[in-house]
């Protein structure tokens, strides 16, 4: 992987240089910081302190990009967007240090000037020095208050405008979160602020391979802090460290998977079917394979079969459980196949979920985890909030509807479909489901809040708790500690 190379003749510390390299790669070629940064860190001999500082600078500057550009625009004679990109990225790193770290202002300015000299040459040094000195003065005058610094609208008069400034999000995303939370300004503020927190690593202990308690103990044996998840019986949260150091992860008995992804998968596996089962479960959009692997593991140990099937008429023995996982892209299909290794009753097939290679009405359950905007995982992808646009969502909605229709056609009468997205955006969540349900006469929307694992603690004791107004489930980082996963459960009926 290539990044912009620093020029000779300048000096800067390695943590700031590495952060600048990641920002340049994100800007130049659309790199994903959460993939590139660990790769670069693994190849550099940095102290633990420098590794931590490089991580904070990189992710913090990317998350706050809009705010940083706004601050820089207040002190430059030309829009920051017109500044030479390598210089602009260095200025963003400097402004972030001044605004959000404990680095003394003089050190933040001097180190950024050194970075500009090392990476961009001598010509822009005076410009960078002048700009950052002005930024430092403005931050001091505003006592570090972003609302004052950027003249944020009054929260009572323009809640979305105020939150966009103080939480460093594009206004359209603020509007989406406010809409999804029913206009709850305090809740939206908490949800947006959660996008700036570092997410804990969640693991799934695959049923039949290792249980959550054993996985916690294994983490402790290699010096990693870990604890059981709150909602999924298979979830383990790591306090830090490399999950790859766990033998269970190396052996495929456990893997990294957000607890929200586990919960929506368990909901589909737990919802009862009605009538005679075929034994077939289909994952229409399986890449990269985490949910498919959990479904396969549950099938292999027969969980939660006792609660997820109505008694068969005439005492028929249920057929063997099988899983078909579809993924259209070759690389991701390969990941799905790897995740299903060791599950002989699970098959990965490269196919478009809109045109599944299965006759209609043959599946007991269908998981359709549709491609979406990813607004529910912004804390994991720091640059995404500035990349996504409303047009991206509009372009995805037709595909999401087509996939849901395909899932409903594939499931048998009495079977269940789980429609899942990693987004809280109503246009790609509840509006997709209600629109398709209204077009068909063979669909009932179930109250997902009343299905395991959501029907009991920690979400509610026999009643919906903290999951929204229903019938859907919307998880949130600030409420549940998970990605903002959306779940709708639908039952197919005879027309």
From TrEMBL:
Classification of source organism: Bacteria, Bacillati, Actinomycetota, Actinomycetes, Frankiales
Annotated source species: Parafrankia soli
SAM-dependent MTase RsmB/NOP-type domain segment(s): 191-493
Keywords: Methyltransferase, RNA-binding, S-adenosyl-L-methionine, Transferase
InterPro entries registered for this protein in UniProt: MeTrfase_RsmB-F_NOP2_cat, MeTrfase_RsmB-F_NOP2_dom, NusB-like_sf, NusB_RsmB_TIM44, RCMT, SAM-dependent_MTases_sf
Domain of life: Bacteria
Protein name per UniProt: rRNA cytosine-C5-methyltransferase
Annotated active site: 422 (nucleophile)
UniProt binding sites for S-adenosyl-L-methionine: 285-291, 327, 352, 369
One biological process term in Gene Ontology: RNA methylation
């Amino acid at each position: 992987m290539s990044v912009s190379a620093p020029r000779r003749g300048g000096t800067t510390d390695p943590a700031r240089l590495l952060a600048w390299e990641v920002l340049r790669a994100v800007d130049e070629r659309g790199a994903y910081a959460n993939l590139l940064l660990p790769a670069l860190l693994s190849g550099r001999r940095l102290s633990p302190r420098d590794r931590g500082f490089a991580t904070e600078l990189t992710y913090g500057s990317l998350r706050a990009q809009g705010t940083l550009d706004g601050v820089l625009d207040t002190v430059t004679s030309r829009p920051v967007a017109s500044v030479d990109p390598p210089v602009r990225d260095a200025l963003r790193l400097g402004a972030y240090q001044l605004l959000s770290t404990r680095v003394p202002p003089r050190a933040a300015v001097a180190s950024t000037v050194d970075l500009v000299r090392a990476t961009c040459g001598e010509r822009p040094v005076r410009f960078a020095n002048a700009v950052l000195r002005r930024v430092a003065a403005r931050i001091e005058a505003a006592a570090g208050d972003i609302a004052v610094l950027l003249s944020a609208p009054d929260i009572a008069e323009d809640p979305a405008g105020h939150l966009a400034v103080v939480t460093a999000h594009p206004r359209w995303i603020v509007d989406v979160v406010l809409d999804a939370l029913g206009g709850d300004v305090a809740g939206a503020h908490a949800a947006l602020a959660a996008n700036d927190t570092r997410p804990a690593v969640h693991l799934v202990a695959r049923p039949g391979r290792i249980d959550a308690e054993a996985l916690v103990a294994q983490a402790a044996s290699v010096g990693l802090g870990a604890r059981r998840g709150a909602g999924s019986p298979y979830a383990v949260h790591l306090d830090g460290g490399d999950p790859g150091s766990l033998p269970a992860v190396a052996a495929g008995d456990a893997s990294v998977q957000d607890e929200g992804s586990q919960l929506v998968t368990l909901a589909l596996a737990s919802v009862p079917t009605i009538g005679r089962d075929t034994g077939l479960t289909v994952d229409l959009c399986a890449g990269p394979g985490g949910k498919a692997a959990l479904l396969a593991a549950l099938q292999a140990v027969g969980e939660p079969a006792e609660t997820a099937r109505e008694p068969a008429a005439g005492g028929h023995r249920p057929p063997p459980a099988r899983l078909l996982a579809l993924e259209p892209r070759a690389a991701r299909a390969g990941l799905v196949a790897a995740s299903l290794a060791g599950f002989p009753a699970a098959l990965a097939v490269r196919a478009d979920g809109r045109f599944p290679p299965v006759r209609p009405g043959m599946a007991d359950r269908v998981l359709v985890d549709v491609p979406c905007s990813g607004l529910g995982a912004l804390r994991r992808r720091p640059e995404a909030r500035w990349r996504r646009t409303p047009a991206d969502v509009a372009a995805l909605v037709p595909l999401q509807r087509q996939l849901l229709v395909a899932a409903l056609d594939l499931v048998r009468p009495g079977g269940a479909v789980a429609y899942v997205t990693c987004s809280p955006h109503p246009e790609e969540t509840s509006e997709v489901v209600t629109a398709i349900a209204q077009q068909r006469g063979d669909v009932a929307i179930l109250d997902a809040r009343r299905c395991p694992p959501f029907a009991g603690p920690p979400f509610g004791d026999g009643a919906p708790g903290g999951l929204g107004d229903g019938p859907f489930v919307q998880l949130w980082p600030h409420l549940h500690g998970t990605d903002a996963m959306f779940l709708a459960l639908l039952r197919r009926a005879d027309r």
